[in-house]
Specification:
Strand content: over 45%
Number of strands: 7
Low-confidence stretches: none
Shape: globular
Order of helices and strands: EHHEEEEHEEH
Distance between the termini: 26 Å
Strand order of the largest sheet: 1-7-6-5-4-3-2
Length: 143
Amino acid sequence: MYVDITSHGDIFHEMFRHRPHDLALISPDILHGCEFDGQAGAVGSSIFFEYTRDGKKLTAKAMLEEVDEKNHKVVYKVTEGDLVEELYKSFKIIFHVEPKGDGQLAIWTLEFEKMNTNMPYPTSFMDYVLKITRDLDAHNTSQ
């Protein structure tokens, strides 16, 4: 999925790579905090998230697997939480920014393997990350 953004891609890359804990200040109704295990923003480091999705308080741990500075790209592999313990065998979250005319696109890709064919597609999680993206863009354009 993608969303048009007016903020520069560097801002999103910085927040999603080095300062995801600041997102809790921008979207406190759905992201309650996070803690790093390892150096913030370093490939191989992990982040433990506390968040609310679909009205449920949840937790997740994700390892920063890949960074591409030029394309403002970060790739997280979810290692703990409902996404990989209840719904999917594997789950990756990929974010990057691409130019679009005079603006930019924030692009989210979810790579996952369902535990079985009855499991839903992760549309509620996609809605969740798109809301955070819109909240961050609105926060940065209002300053």
